[in-house]
Amino acid sequence: MLSIEARGLTKDFKIVQSREGMKGAFRDLFDRKYRTIRAVDEIDLGIQSGEIVGYIGENGAGKSTTIKMLTGILQPTAGELKVNGFDPHREREQFVRTIGVVFGQRSQLWWDLAVRESFRLLKKLYGIPDEKYHAHLDRLTEVLEMGPLLEQPVRKLSLGQRMRCELAAALLHQPSLLFLDEPTIGLDVLVKENIRRFLKQINQEYGTTILLTTHDLSDIEALCHRVVMLDKGTIIYDGGLTELSRQWGGGPRLYLELEEEWDLTTLQGFTKDITAEWQHVGDRCYRVLLTGDNPSVSEVLSRVVPHASVKEIRIEEATTEDIVRRIYQEGVPNA
Amino acid sequence: MTTSKLFIDYFMQYVKTRLQYRSDFFVQMVTDIMFQTVNLVFILVVFNHTTHLSSWSREEVIFIYGYFLVPFSIFAAFFNLWEFNERYIIKGELDRVLTRPVHSLFQVMMETMTPESLSGALTGMAVMGWASWEMDLQFHWYDPLLFLLFALGGAAIYGGLYIMLTSISLFSDSKTDIQPIMYNVGNYGRYPIDIYNKVIQIVLTWLMPFAFVGFYPASFLLHDDRWLTFAMLTPVMGFLWFALGIMVWNLGIKNYRGAGS
């Protein structure tokens, strides 16, 4: 079953273009010039229920706008959108019962209330029956280790404590779909790990579908089987994480420090039957990029060692971060 | 049904929050009482210097003024939307509100209400009581019921108007100064309408219907039947303006552009 189904989803913003200087300001008063900015440009997206999908993109790529359309906050300019079987904006009040939302940069809780009171008000807002509420809250309290936090006002919590409570708040009504916008922003490594573990757990236990945006690609590596990459309002990649690195990341990189200086073409000559690309990176230091289907470090070494003596070897696996950076810098190669 | 239950829940939370800052709560209470007392004394002193206003006696003017305070304080308690632009649009709290399964305006009203403003209604009723005692005014059994209906209607007119003005923020996030202007115009509703010229009378009746918040119903309670129809229209006008306010709000929500990323 599809949890999110978007076809040709588009959002335009009309922006007043202000003119320069005092004279321009006066002209703006009477004759306004508008410019339309397309934040999200006809994207198609289908997410199966039970999936964990990472939604990534640079600042201003249209991630937040998409999330806001999917959660019913914004009305799309054009396109079809069904989330959990609802039209998110038109049927907002019914629709939001089926989703949970966490915005990492903004609190979902009431600042002055104790955490428990915030939860209680949410219970009333969602009309959760007592029994269900207590059972579920107990479970969440245990897993998220919120016991000591419940009686404190939200404003006194640390960021990591608050984020755990935010997650609990978003899950109180047991939504089948969870939106997370930068859930780990500003958190330390340990808390990040806890939160990831928790997300995985609820995904497995309740089959909760999760869509998360993040700048921290280690979140994606830890959680998602699938990434959707957005650039300038359009989807430039939608698929598995491993395929992503195979398609764009290439294989590992081999760093070699040789005993003496070698000519690049000579080195390239040693490995002419495998797809390895030599680069000179410093005094007697070389980088070998292994691309193609079956690049093997040992094969490269076996060809070099008979000719040149190797002083030091270092192998680097391309990280997702490298890959993504490369995609943004170099654009989409033949996508 | 669920709405009134939710109202009680929000109200309880409000009280709890206020009680949390214990000293603050008492200070606030003392300030409120002092403010209302000063207000009361001020009204009596100021009006003691004017003997009458055109054909209206001093007591009648005071009575109208006291009546006005009742719908006005109901309005002030539940439509505290002054900081909407700052808090909900610029700081982006509306995003949170929109992910909850209850009407957005209701949530905003509940989160910003200041029930302590209702103390103004007590002052108003004290003023009315004093004036009617001075005038030896007799009330019918149905007068208190109509009074309640009128007060709610007046608050709804005020509310609807302010919801409309607040909704401007949903269309454009630039600050407007219409609210304070409207607030000042609102004060004209607390004086007898026949002291104004025709144009202002029409404006205060149909365009910015503040006469329904103060004068028309108060004149009825004073047993002056010249504006009977208008007085009876108060609840209807309240309903219409409030409905209009909600319509504009809903349109604004459709237009809402979200807070920056």
UniProtKB/TrEMBL annotation, chain A:
User: GO molecular function: any one?
Assistant: ATP hydrolysis activity
Upper classification of the source organism reads: Bacteria, Bacillati, Bacillota, Bacilli, Bacillales
Q: Which domain of life is it from?
A: Bacteria
Where in this chain does the record put each ABC transporter domain? 24-257
UniProt xrefs under Pfam families: ABC_tran
This chain's protein is named: ABC-2 type transport system ATP-binding protein
- Its source organism is Marininema halotolerans
Instruction: Work out whether the entry's keyword set contains Disulfide bond.
Output: no
Keyword Nucleotide-binding attributed: yes
Recite the UniProt keywords alphabetically: ATP-binding, Nucleotide-binding, Transport
The cross-references to InterPro entries, in alphabetical order and at most eight, read: AAA+_ATPase, ABC_transporter-like_ATP-bd, ABC_transporter_ATP-binding, P-loop_NTPase
Q: Which Gene3D superfamilies match?
A: P-loop containing nucleotide triphosphate hydrolases
Automatic annotation (TrEMBL), chain B:
Q: Native species of this protein?
A: Marininema halotolerans
This protein's source sits in the domain of life called Bacteria
Query: What is this protein's record name?
Result: ABC-2 type transport system permease protein
Pfam families tied to this protein: ABC2_membrane_6
Q: Which residues cross the membrane?
A: 25-47, 62-82, 117-133, 145-165, 199-221, 227-251
Keyword Membrane applies: yes
Sorted keywords for this record are: Membrane, Transmembrane, Transmembrane helix
Q: Which InterPro entries match?
A: ABC-2_transporter-like
Say if the entry is tagged with keyword Ubl conjugation. Answer: no
